[in-house]
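Hi,

Apologies if this is the wrong queue. I'm a grad student, and the batch job for Peptidase YpeB-like protein from Streptomyces halobius produced an output file that my downstream script rejects. I'm not sure whether the problem is my script or the file. Here is the sequence I used:
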Amino acid sequence: MTRPHGRWLPLAVLATALAALIASIVWVAGSAPSSPWRPGPGAMTGTVSSTGPVRTLADADRAAERLADRWDLHVGDVMQFSNGYYAELLDRDGKGATAVLIDPGSRTVQLEFGPAMVWNTAYGMMPALDRAGAAAIGPDQAVRIADRWLRDHRPGLHAAEPERFPGYYTLHTLRGDRIVGMLSVHATSGDVWYHTWHGRFLQMQEHPGSR
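Support response: The file is valid. Your script probably expects a header line. Output copied below for reference.
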């Protein structure tokens, strides 16, 4: 897969991007997802635009809040990468709901590529697959799966504490104690999806209670 340079892909070509991203899963603990990508009933789609420039973590936080408000969610941690900003959205109980990307050039906020679209069983494109949110894989096992994948595919990196989202976990990847990127582990199959679209990690704004 060729990673977009400097800007995330516009919404108009997300379908093409998703097809390429699905092909980028290079290791699975079980079998690869068998269901094709397609919008499901109640899928959390759509975008919003920031009313002001997005130049800082605080700007990205405010931009993400505009989309979070539509879904009765609020913003958790916000991260800046070389390709733009990432923000996790939390529910009323402070649990992970989904994640969004904020493009500083277009000021667009949209659902994150990959697991947030395809694996998220409550806020993704196929939300009806697991309403109960049951997970065969616990957080400790998710870390072990992630570490095994990183050992084989990103030597020198290891996984941080997992953040649970509906249907999957997302974990920061670390070199020593420094964040490098992130990956996700499917909570039922153990499939691993490395987030290739962020670019280089720059900085993070943590919200109290978001983990």
